Amino acid sequence: MESIDHHLTCGGKNMTEAELHREIIRANHEREEKTLSKYATKSQDGIRLAPCREKLPDMENIRPAFFHDTDKIIHSRAYTRYIDKTQVFSLFENDHITHRVLHVQFVSKIARVIGRCLRLNEDLIEAVALGHDLGHTPYGHDGERYLNQLCIEAGIGYFCHNAQSVRFLHEIEGDGQGLNLTLQVLDGILTHNGEIINERLTPVASKGWDEFLAEYRSCFEVKDISKKIYPMTLEGCVVRVSDFIAYLGRDIEDAITVGLISRAELPAEIVEVLGATNDQIINTLALDVIRNSYGENYIAFSPEIYHALLKLKEFNKERIYDNPRIKTQDKKIQRMFRMLFTEYLEDIKHGERSSPVFSYYLEMMEGQHPRDYPVERLVVDFIAGMTDDFFNEQFRKKFVPQSFGFKLQ
User: Fold this and answer.
1) 276-305, pLDDT tens digit by residue?
2) Can you give the pTM of this predicted structure?
3) CB of 334 closer than 8 Å to CB of 393
């Protein structure tokens, strides 16, 4: 293999590879200094809890810190499982409704266009957007509620998908070592909370590792505390608002696709302000955010748009998310969660090494993770990481009689 100091030709000048890398890094820093807003988060300000774990220090890497974090996220096992996780609609044999993998791409795209217009760090935005829903369970928010109830009954606190996303990235991925992501990325993921619509979001810029880790732990220990924590960066604030910009209109389109509602049912007062289609809603909301946040150290909506947003969310909740027509299977699914939870818990307690909770999860952990938490939390981790199909298949294998085939072998 050639030495790293072999000569390369760049721009007509002979440069060693090390010199070329230094030039690229210098140009990256210069570009950010020239183009980003004074309120933006610079890549060189990325903070890792264990910088010594990086194969190459951030300051010597041609991939800026947040760009590198995106690479780590999209190559994680948890990211590959987005492909078959419910967004809103489960149990539909329709390839044209949104799954979690598509939702996070929508969030990333919307957040990046807003961030670009506000001259924020798009690398940080992309990392937070693509990682923000990794902790979602099979069967979406319904599954989240079922796991939360099991946590309460087991006396281990609560389940919160925001914190579970951080848990996968910070503690479970990398064979139990975590991925050593920057504070700013993990904070944006923990605080994304797209279920809450704020008229204005101002970053909590003074946050450090101690405060972040305290907030992270509290999400498992204090009921609904995730609703009271906020991002430390303006980029995190952009992803937070882009989350509901991405899902509110899209959920309407999916509801129409599966025959749950018709477009004519949308209230006229909402349509007049936000529009009647997903593209109109996204365009209206994104432009309003840009207009009301440009040059400011906050992300804000105008009062008119904000109130219309609240009404749209209320409409979606009543007519889509809580619609009894798509809740007919809920009791069955809830029992499935309880039965699998109980079964895996017994498997761990009795050392059943053939159990999937060992072969697909615990045996992969080379770090300290399995020994640091109660067994109930380890079971929750395993179930939370499942795709819908894997969850269903595990249930069938555990509780539905299996055929012997034509004859015994």
Assistant:
1) 999 999 999 999 999 999 999 999 999 999
2) 0.93
3) no
The whole-number pLDDT of residue 343 equals 97
Q: For residue 139, which of 345, 275, 373, 330 has the smallest C-alpha distance?
A: 330
Dihedrals φ, ψ of 126, to 5°? -65, -45
Supply angle C-alpha 149, 321, 139, rounded to 5. 50
What residue ranges of the chain have pLDDT lower than 70?
1-13, 366-371
CA distance 376 to 374: 5
Please give the backbone phi and psi of residue 99, each rounded to the nearest 5 degrees, phi first: -105, 170
Please tell me the predicted confidence (pLDDT) of residue 253.
Answer: 96
Q: What is the pLDDT of residue 162?
A: 95
CB-based contacts of 117: which residues, under 8 Å, 6+ apart?
Answer: 290, 294
3-state helix, strand, coil in the chain (%, to 5): 60, 5, 35
Q: Could you tell me which of 163, 300, 162 has the C-alpha nearest to residue 237?
A: 300
The confidence score (pLDDT) of residue 12 equals 39
Q: Which CATH number is 70-326 given?
A: 1.10.3210.10
CA angle 201, 135, 389 (to 5 degrees): 140
What's at 223, amino acid-wise?
Answer: K
Ramachandran sector of residue 12 (left: φ over 0; alpha: ψ -120 to 50; beta: rest)? left
Residue 127 token pair: 């990392």
| One-letter-per-residue 3-state SS of 51-115 | HHHCCCCHHHCCCCHHHHHHHHHHCCHHHHHHHHCECCCCCCCCCCCCEHHHHHHHHHHHHHHHH
CA gap 7, 10 in Å, rounded: 10
